[in-house]
Automatic annotation (TrEMBL):
KW Acyltransferase (keyword) present: yes
EC numbers for this chain: 2.3.1.176
Broad EC category: transferase
Any Gene Ontology biological process: lipid transport
Protein source organism: Cupriavidus yeoncheonensis
This protein's name: propanoyl-CoA C-acyltransferase
Length: 392
């Protein structure tokens, strides 16, 4: 399998609501941790890719977000590329860094994804998220009918159709949250670490029927960072712990649905590029912005046959240390979803899994992993999607 680019360092802050933390503070913490994990200095970095989606709307910082956030890390002079691509910003930054390394443009690249989404007025946070659609497009009638993010109205409509077609129940949706919280309880950096029950999930307030509060990813803050390098640089290291990037594919959506959904195109293209069968995956971090997204992806991403997603969930095969452990970090639902950091955080979790460093949430013998990250909505499709295959 492809060994043109290796991940040699990862770092991450706790995810949560931290009104006293700035984007700079969180970025510095994650970047320093990743550089220390790699055993390199800032001067060794050739290129920097900084991911952030909503700072302009939350804090007012625009145009030079990465240069401002990372200015005191000793990276002066290196090119800093600012990346904004909705909830897929972090994975887009990673994709660009991977391409830079494997093409020979950089020996070492640093990816930092950071987001501060909390604001004293929640309407500001929700308003920022609502900008990830085509504002000149008329929204469907069901969007805006719920009591939160317009994206939860979009997910709710898809969920109702899925439940009608497959027999998936509210209890099944709640069980995804139970699984997610159980994983997060073992992740010291996760936002929601208290286990829950099916009854508690169903009793939480309805956001957009059938989605309850616990079935929806929350507003959060945090940062994650990844160091990538070339095989030539890797040979210079004294104690490398490489995780290889088998493939990384980024696509945009087709608003008229003339092609398959963006997430499917990105993921199956990554499978093909890496020579991977999805049923051979050991561990997956996928974009569970709402609970039902996870079980739908079981089918659409090829983990099981169409119509068998609920059965796969009920079997326990996607639970911690299952055949295909899905979202062992807690996922967006429980680890948290500071949108500019999410894609990078998925890579952090999978790198640690493939190194065997995930402690009680470790998938034993993990050798092959998938990260799937989407962002925004334009017409009938997601606006952006990035899927990445990692292996050891």
């Amino acid at each position: 399998m492809n060994k043109q680019c290796a991940i040699i360092g990862v770092g991450m802050t706790p995810f949560g609501k931290f009104p006293d933390q700035t984007v700079r503070m969180m970025s510095e913490q994650a970047a320093r941790a990743a550089l220390a994990d790699a055993g390199i200095a800032a001067k060794d970095v050739d290129q920097v890719y900084f991911s952030n989606a909503v700072a302009g709307l939350i804090t007012g910082q625009e145009m030079v977000r990465g240069q401002a956030a990372l200015r005191f890390l000793g990276l002066q002079g290196q090119p800093v590329v600012n990346v904004e691509n909705a909830c897929a910003s972090g994975s887009t930054a990673f994709n660009l860094a991977w391409n830079a390394v494997r093409s020979g443009q950089a020996q070492v690249a640093l990816v930092v994804g950071a987001e501060r989404m909390t604001h004293e007025d929640k309407r500001v946070s929700f308003g920022a998220l609502a900008k990830a659609v085509d504002l000149e497009e008329e929204l469907p009638t069901h969007v805006g009918s719920g009591s939160g993010s317009i994206f939860m109205d979009i997910y709710a409509e898809k969920t109702r159709k899925y439940m009608a077609a497959t027999g998936c129940t509210r209890e099944d949706l709640a069980q995804i949250v139970v699984k997610s919280r159980r994983a997060a309880s073992l992740n010291p950096l996760a936002q929601f670490r208290t286990p829950t029950t099916v009854e508690e999930v169903l009793a939480s307030r309805v956001i957009s029927d059938p989605l309850t509060l616990q079935m929806c990813s929350s507003i959060g803050d945090g940062a994650a960072a990844v160091v990538l390098c070339s095989p030539a640089f890797l040979k210079k290291m004294t104690a490398p712990k490489p995780v290889w990037v088998g493939a990384s594919v980024m696509v945009s959506g087709t608003p008229d649905a003339s092609l398959d959904p963006a997430a499917l195109r990105a993921t199956f293209s990554a499978y093909e590029a890496a020579g991977v069968d999805p049923r051979d995956l050991h561990v997956v971090e996928l974009h569970d912005a709402s609970a039902p997204s996870e079980v739908m992806y079981y089918e659409s991403l090829g983990f099981c046959a169409p119509g068998e997603g609920v059965g796969l969930l009920r079997s326990g095969a996607t639970d911690l240390n299952g055949r295909i452990s899905v979202n062992p970090s807690g996922g967006l639902l429980s680890k948290g979803h500071p949108i500019g950091a999410t894609g990078a955080a998925q890579i952090v979790e999978l790198t640690q899994q493939l190194r065997g460093e995930s402690g009680p949430r470790q998938r034993e013998g993990a050798k092959l992993a998938l990260a799937e990250n989407g962002g925004g909505q334009v017409g009938l499709d997601g606006a952006a999607a990035v899927s990445t295959i990692l292996h050891v």
